[in-house]
Amino acid sequence: MKSLVISLGGSVLVPNLSGHRIAEYAAALRQVSEKFRVFVVVGGGGEARRYIEVARSLGVDEGTCDEIGIRVTRLNAALLIAALGDSVYPRVAEDQEKALEYAVSGRIVVMGGVTPAQTTDAVSAVLAERTGADILINLTSVDGIYSADPKTDPSATRYAHLTPDRLAEIVSGSRLNAGSNTVMDAIAVKIIQRSSIPLLVLDGRKPENLPDALILGRFSGTVVSSGVNTLVLPL
Ligand code: UTP
C-alpha cells in the first residue's frame, strides 16, 4: 500500500470553532484510507492565532507563544480523531516516533505540532521522510503556490509545477514568528529538497479535493517535484 502524509492546515480544518470542516474531512480521510496508508498532521488555524495573540499581548516570549500554538494543534487533532472513530488510532501522536508506533495498528494516524520555531508543515515533512511517504500533500487556504500572495496582490500567478530548489528561493525571504502564515516553512522545504519527496499543494477549503486528486487523479494545485521523483496521479 502506498503511503501519504497530509498536512491539514488548521486554517481549512478549523478556521474557527463555530465554522469548521471536521466531519467533511473525516469522511474524505476515511475514503482515502481505503487505498492508502494515511498520516495526518493537523494545524492550529484561527484559534491558535487568537491564543498566540493574547499570549503576545501579555508580553510572553515567542517560544512560549509557539508552545501555546502547539497545544491548539493537538486540540484540533483530538477533534479530528473524535470524528474518525474506529478508522483512526485513538491518540494524538506527540512526535514522529509515536506516529510510527501508532501506524502499526494499520489505522489512520493523526498528530499536531511537535516543537517551537516551526509549523505543522515541517512536522509533516519530517514525518513524510521518516515514513518513506510516496507523497506529501499540503491542504491549505489557497489553491497552490503563487508568485506573490494572491490575497493581497491581484497580479499573482499560480505555479503548476516547481522544483524543490525554486520553492526554496520563493520561501527564503519569509519570516517565522509564532502564528505566522507563510507559504511553507523553511524546515519543510529543506526536507523536501534533501529527500526528493513529491509535494502537492491543494485547496483544502474543499475536502473532496483530497479523494479527487488521490483516487481520480483530478486536481488543480501546485506540484513540487524534482527530476529524481516526479509525480503522476493517481499513484
Ligand atoms: P501552524 O501554523 O502549523 O498551523 O501552527 P495552521 O494555522 O494550521 O497553519 P496553516 O493553516 O497551514 O496556515 C500554528 C502555530 O503553532 C506553533 C507555531 O507558532 C505556529 O505558527 N507551532 C506549530 C510550533 O511552534 N511548532 C510546531 O511543530 C507546530
Concise summary:
This protein is an alpha/beta fold. 42% of the residues lie in helices and 14% in strands.
Q: Could you characterize what this model shows?
A:
- The protein is of the alpha/beta class and 235 residues long.
- It has helices at 10-13, 22-33, 45-57, 62-84, 96-103, 120-131, 164-171, 186-195, 209-216, and strands spanning 3-8, 37-42, 109-111, 135-140, 161-162, 199-203, 221-224.
- It has a single domain (3-224), classed as Acetylglutamate kinase-like (Carbamate kinase).
- 42% of the residues lie in helices and 14% in strands.
- Helix 2 (22-33) packs across helix 4 (62-84) and helix 3 runs antiparallel to helix 4.
- The radius of gyration is 16 Å and the shape is globular.
- The relative contact order is 0.17.
- Residues 9-11, 43-45, 48, 66, 69-70, 73, 113-116, 118-120, 123, 140, 178-181 line the site of uridine 5'-triphosphate.
Pick out the low-confidence regions: none
- CATH-defined architecture: 3-Layer(aba) Sandwich
The first-level CATH class name: Alpha Beta
Going across the biggest sheet, name each strand in turn.
3-2-1-4-6-7-5
Number of strands: 7
Task: Give the averaged pLDDT, no decimals.
Answer: 94
Sequence of secondary-structure elements: EHHEHHHEHEEHHEHE
| Estimated structural class | alpha/beta
Fraction of residues in helix? 40-55%
Number of helices: 9
Number of domains: 1
> What fraction of residues sit in β-strands?
5-15%
Q: In oligomeric terms, what are we looking at?
A: single chain
Q: Kindly, what is the distance between the CA atoms of the first and last residues, rounded to a whole number of angstroms?
A: 10 Å
Instruction: Report the biggest beta sheet as strand number plus sense, adding barrel if it closes.
Output: 7 strands, mixed
Q: What is the CATH superfamily label? A: Acetylglutamate kinase-like
The CATH topology name reads: Carbamate kinase
Radius of gyration: 16 Å
Global geometry? globular
Bound molecules: uridine 5'-triphosphate
